[in-house]
Amino acid sequence: MKKLVTLGELLLRFTPPGHLKLIQTETFEAIFGGAEANVAVSARNYGIESYYVTKLPAHDIGTAAINSLRKWGVGTDYIARGGERIGTYFFERGAGMRPAQIVYDRKHSSMAEAVPSDFDWDAIFEGKDWFHWSGITPALSPTARDICLAAVKAAKEHGVRVSVDLNYRGRMWTHEEAGEAMKELCRYSDVCITSDDDAEIFGLYPDDAPIPDGKPDLWNFQSVAQRLKDTFDFDEVAVMRRRTLTAGKGLWDAMLLDKDGFHWGKVLDIEIVDTIGCGDAFCGGFISAELLGYDAQKKLNFASAAGCLKHTVDGDFNMVSIDDVHSLMANSGSMEVKR
Amino acid sequence: MKKLVTLGELLLRFTPPGHLKLIQTETFEAIFGGAEANVAVSARNYGIESYYVTKLPAHDIGTAAINSLRKWGVGTDYIARGGERIGTYFFERGAGMRPAQIVYDRKHSSMAEAVPSDFDWDAIFEGKDWFHWSGITPALSPTARDICLAAVKAAKEHGVRVSVDLNYRGRMWTHEEAGEAMKELCRYSDVCITSDDDAEIFGLYPDDAPIPDGKPDLWNFQSVAQRLKDTFDFDEVAVMRRRTLTAGKGLWDAMLLDKDGFHWGKVLDIEIVDTIGCGDAFCGGFISAELLGYDAQKKLNFASAAGCLKHTVDGDFNMVSIDDVHSLMANSGSMEVKR
Amino acid sequence: MKKLVTLGELLLRFTPPGHLKLIQTETFEAIFGGAEANVAVSARNYGIESYYVTKLPAHDIGTAAINSLRKWGVGTDYIARGGERIGTYFFERGAGMRPAQIVYDRKHSSMAEAVPSDFDWDAIFEGKDWFHWSGITPALSPTARDICLAAVKAAKEHGVRVSVDLNYRGRMWTHEEAGEAMKELCRYSDVCITSDDDAEIFGLYPDDAPIPDGKPDLWNFQSVAQRLKDTFDFDEVAVMRRRTLTAGKGLWDAMLLDKDGFHWGKVLDIEIVDTIGCGDAFCGGFISAELLGYDAQKKLNFASAAGCLKHTVDGDFNMVSIDDVHSLMANSGSMEVKR
Amino acid sequence: MKKLVTLGELLLRFTPPGHLKLIQTETFEAIFGGAEANVAVSARNYGIESYYVTKLPAHDIGTAAINSLRKWGVGTDYIARGGERIGTYFFERGAGMRPAQIVYDRKHSSMAEAVPSDFDWDAIFEGKDWFHWSGITPALSPTARDICLAAVKAAKEHGVRVSVDLNYRGRMWTHEEAGEAMKELCRYSDVCITSDDDAEIFGLYPDDAPIPDGKPDLWNFQSVAQRLKDTFDFDEVAVMRRRTLTAGKGLWDAMLLDKDGFHWGKVLDIEIVDTIGCGDAFCGGFISAELLGYDAQKKLNFASAAGCLKHTVDGDFNMVSIDDVHSLMANSGSMEVKR
Amino acid sequence: MKKLVTLGELLLRFTPPGHLKLIQTETFEAIFGGAEANVAVSARNYGIESYYVTKLPAHDIGTAAINSLRKWGVGTDYIARGGERIGTYFFERGAGMRPAQIVYDRKHSSMAEAVPSDFDWDAIFEGKDWFHWSGITPALSPTARDICLAAVKAAKEHGVRVSVDLNYRGRMWTHEEAGEAMKELCRYSDVCITSDDDAEIFGLYPDDAPIPDGKPDLWNFQSVAQRLKDTFDFDEVAVMRRRTLTAGKGLWDAMLLDKDGFHWGKVLDIEIVDTIGCGDAFCGGFISAELLGYDAQKKLNFASAAGCLKHTVDGDFNMVSIDDVHSLMANSGSMEVKR
Amino acid sequence: MKKLVTLGELLLRFTPPGHLKLIQTETFEAIFGGAEANVAVSARNYGIESYYVTKLPAHDIGTAAINSLRKWGVGTDYIARGGERIGTYFFERGAGMRPAQIVYDRKHSSMAEAVPSDFDWDAIFEGKDWFHWSGITPALSPTARDICLAAVKAAKEHGVRVSVDLNYRGRMWTHEEAGEAMKELCRYSDVCITSDDDAEIFGLYPDDAPIPDGKPDLWNFQSVAQRLKDTFDFDEVAVMRRRTLTAGKGLWDAMLLDKDGFHWGKVLDIEIVDTIGCGDAFCGGFISAELLGYDAQKKLNFASAAGCLKHTVDGDFNMVSIDDVHSLMANSGSMEVKR
After folding, report:
1. How far is B88 from chain D (nearest CA, A)?
2. CB half-sphere exposure, A144, CA atoms < 13 A
């Protein structure tokens, strides 16, 4: 089995049942998730041995967080324990014309206050094949940014392939702050995965690209992808795009630029049971597909189908099997019961 | 803060979870609501000080009903206590081709058996700006009709602006009975809000208006609105319309006739989490918008967006904020998560 | 009241709440159902006295199964008790592009291991009007096939009309095995109900019929229906068809061939709350309609509307009333709340 | 099988989950029950064919009520449909030093407004062995009292044995009113079952009996039982007694006076999951035991054990089997899991 | 109505359903509470107009917190909005030999980071009768301690009576730190309420008092109470004591020292549905009883019965009525259903 | 870390919520458990590296079973996949005088039909310290007995210490069958753990030992323990005893015989949230304590406290920490909240 390491913050998410609003609920569903943990779970489901690196408080909620990863087979040996708290957020599902909303309470978390000496990257990367991180981690705190830098450098030293999901979060830092920090970190990364608007942090949009509603059009996005690839010397740039029509449905597609040029995925209809972690499901699919030796088009199709399926799964983790993804890729249209 | 008073009956609603039918459920979600209470809650959410007037039994269920209003900031000082029972109903959500259904058990309620001396309208209207009532209250009983009449007269004496939602209920009285009672009461009202078919109680449809499926077309409804306005000397006539395509989706729009003529709202797609209280959400939006000083078109848009959003909120009360309504009014199409 | 008997296996179905996957749930909704029991419940709801014949273990779960039938008025006097277990299955609702799936655990059930002497068909058919069975029962085991054969023979001797739902299950036997067994049993049946692909077991498709995605087209299905009718000398052949577009929606229509030729139903939109038992709801509607004396077109429309409504009802049983079915048949488009 | 008929009002009970108070709950468990229906269910569980007579509204909630009886095998053929509503009540479980409480909303029910012509007692009692009624029914309304009288008279004419549970409800009538009405009805009854304080309605307490805290002591109750027996010429007088120590535990015992004198039951510890219907469970046990031919002591023990077990069963109905009751009667102290 | 003001931090509490452990739950019940808010709710339930002062973040969870107070009639006009977060904690109910446990996550809350200028005490105390605070608030942060000091000083200036619940929390500060801070604040307080071990912070235990298992015996506690009274010149010192025998049951009693000497309450059995807020319920009962004019013994009995009842109520708030408390005070032993 | 291997069958347990009976529930809580898996989880919680060996079907329910073990850190590498089904059972919690009951449906499971070649014991025992099995496994089937024998022999060859929990199940085999099979297997075991009546399978009770109600008294059990030790040359014989007084409470104690003679534990009160897996919790505690190097008395106390705590934990697994066990061992009586 190929081996993947991911690094990030694990969050405890509180979700009201059904379509209840935060302001009316008296109970919460509680699940753990986080962009990079979600990638690790996806990869494990597709047969990749995966490890997740983070720091969690040394109390029962911290242990429950670890158990939630162990349950899905993710290696938790490198997780540091200590610090004050686990970051949390409240998630309200949307419905129809009412968008989903998030109230964050993630400051002062164990991971945000972790320091580089909490992790021994040489031990972690020994014998591993791939390292994945995202733009959320350096946004947590200066020490988290230092941890990221130590990680990507060590990965390169160990000959481990590195991928990044740009994953820009406007609540955490500005485009400028993100651009400055990410530039340094991306230099140590081989594969860049991004949604169609996260790349704005680098100011790489061409002067003549129309940006309707503040978002670049995907077809004009080719030049952006090309500039991304050129600027950071990425081997691959994968772009995923979600257009939500209501809180419950939308469209989903993706594009890949590699040494052979551009590859395009199908536009897929999505029905949204859970809107969180779908980009991470794409990343997990993409990385796994590459580690499994799929060719470029099949990688893109696999990642895109995995991301599409995630929209139908409650929680952060994409609990579908490799067969489920292949089944959607091959699907000729019937959604009849699988007996 | 401007001050609103509404009058009506509060009902305890029993709803099976999810899509279960009344005949199969073993549990009920229990919430309180009522056309005019819903208006009071909406207004309070938009920054209007609102009061609700009714009569409730002096036991724990009656107190729970009051608490449900206090929770949302509605003034309950003028609520009378006593009588036998709170009206109830059983509500079954529909699905697809199966329409929602209601089984009422509201007779003999404290409010239906209340008498005019239960309420001191001079005290109630002291310093208030607006009074809202609906056609459900005079339909409850002859004494409830007397209470309504005392209320609208007192409102006029105190210089309080009066709005009515025609809100015709075919289970409670006939078109003729309603028309007769409402004619007297509407004379003391300044603003008329109605759905597209409730106005039938007055027999004001022009001879030449086609009525497909027993319902007047909205575009032909202009002459009806005009006749309504002329007959009762209303300042404003607002008409809302819902066309349900399945139990879960439909279309929603509205129109306003005032001294400046006709104003038209956008047709909005609706996805239906809860079909109850959407007209009341429109009324609450309309009254609030006027009290907040919005112009005619903005009033209509605000009310219509508020009504549209209510369809996505479980329960009778429209638990959205003024920002949520403005956000939908300004919405350029994306329903992405609000982080 | 006309009297119906159905025979089959009752299963205990475990369903995770909402859209949870089997692999993530910690609770199950538990309901009893089975193709032929579902038919008996439907018929009882439409005013037919119905009886269900099966064998169930003599413990509390077996008794709970019986109670679930008694609750809906189905006669349980002929149910044998004994054997090892009740068959079960795990059902995962689908969502969007993720199809529903079933994990069966039904082997070694009391019914699969029942023997002909468990049932006294002479007593059972005394004074009854109709007997319904399906292709699932002979697939259970050789002894279950023997029971079926004894039943249809006894039915014919008692002048009881016999209907069969072909109901082919690929997990239980092959097309060839099914074809061989069903041929013998169909000879004792008067009415054949089938979905558009179950008829493949008899190899009756014309050489020139295109079979896209392995399924015959309904319009080309006329010749198959005709061959079915001719081969087994059926009085009536009814064909129902569901095309699922996503796990939550699709299209539904049906066709009837009788002595007067072909009758066609409307294509109905379906929204899927529960995908199980919809064909059984069609059968229950068809049989009831005939016992109530409806003409061919009305039978077809009634059965089709009943099947359409079942998609909106949680559980196996179609808990709608005869009025609900008539209401959908007459429906002029509005899905407003039935107050 | 011996055949039992019971008559009374069926109520819909709303119970908050767990120990929640009425004033804080947002959901209710909904079950149907009623003193005499509970007796019918108990008897059916012990192998007696039982029928329940009442009147219920002709809507889905009324049908659900009937289904809840059919589920347990109770005959519902004699139930009249019509009238306005089903009586309801809200039940709050107690805990520790907080007693359980009930808020009734049962007036104007279909049964309270039923009239004698709703029931054909000659048809009902044809071939039956036993008729059971309770003091709740004549308390409902004058017409309900008339129905009771018609029933007991018809029972006597058909040679059906009659039992009464005095079941005095202080919210419904006074001791005096109850005494006057019950005297007439008891003359047509053979067996009297009562709790230790309900007999107060007849003013039969001896002058010298100490009544601590308003309740006669059971040992001094002998003379009351004797006077009851003598006054109404009852064959049997059974007295049950519950002493609640906290809302969750207490003591339970019973006594029987028949032609052979007094019989005494064991004092049993009770732990209270559900406090409703325990007296009815005693009645159901007593009647069944007599119909099954048990001797006096065994009747008393069976009834007492049945009543004891009911305290552990959620809902009104005593869902235990005859084996469960025998097992408690024989119990030598271990409460280990029955594997 | 007399008027009470309380000051403190409101917390969001997450509780797993039933007896589930924190480490195994996937859902949480979410309620708001806090020592001083609990007192305000209790007082409002007994007819005292009460106000709660705190600071809460300006998002939906903060608004939900306010609504939870409004629901119970507590005045929220003086609550400041802003800051980063609401403090939270995870509460695991105990069972048998497994004690309940709490995992706190309350640092950096809006209230802990509030500053004196957030509150206008002159406006707040205008026309009020009583001010209650507890030892938790000065433990939050130095600025919270400043707020406390400003509040007690202003209260004294406005002639408002001041009570303190010592409420020592070992996780938040040491005995020494608490003693130092509380000494200053207690000088401005008139009434001291304490559990039997919180008074340790002042080191007032007599040299010769035996302290079994680290806790002073209540009978020996008299001299401590006397020293407390003398040291701070309190008018009254009330001491409550809970002895938990298992996680679900225990004993509860209390004592009062005032100018007339010692008063003793009854020892009450407690069954524990919810262990949180019981001391606050005692405080709320005590303050209300004094404001209602009860004499010393009746004050003590009322407070003690209120605290006893709280153990049976889920959540932080004591949702019992004044009648419920009087009923327990008068209780002659029966816990039968209140019909 | 020391390493433990356990072998057995994993079962899927269906439990109705709260105190509902099997016959009335419509939902089930679903958890996985099994005597030997429970031991593995306990050991892992106390810091022992543990592995579980079984066979599970290759579908989603089988994978969910594995995930439930991984969640708690148990090694699942040696679990075979395949076969027909996972064994299940329905568990009804008791209450008061109503004992808990189990309905099994475990025949034909993958583990019952597993064969010795499914497991490579040389690989499994490489580097391990302890092997634990129980009397349930050889009761499953002849092949399961063969697997057991292969396992204990291989363990001895690898110098792995072997413990057995006699765990007699009367539904699976007779005393005679069990005695015959277990005699052979016990010869390869070093440590025997048994409840006070399971040892009956060997017929070792002295002629003069009184067996009240079919159970030997613990104090007279000394000679049985001694005979057990002598017959099979066990190093240690640990005996645990539970006396259930009601379905919710009882007493719990234990005894140990080793080379130094008899050691006695304290009698502990138990309150029963979940009665399943408590003996397994004792075994897991005992084995862990020995692997952690505790002396005889501390081993016994640790195991006994662990077993006592399990009674308070929902589900099969004993989700308490080593600190929780030590805390109960040290407990001086207070069950106050751990803040």
Report:
1. 10
2. 24
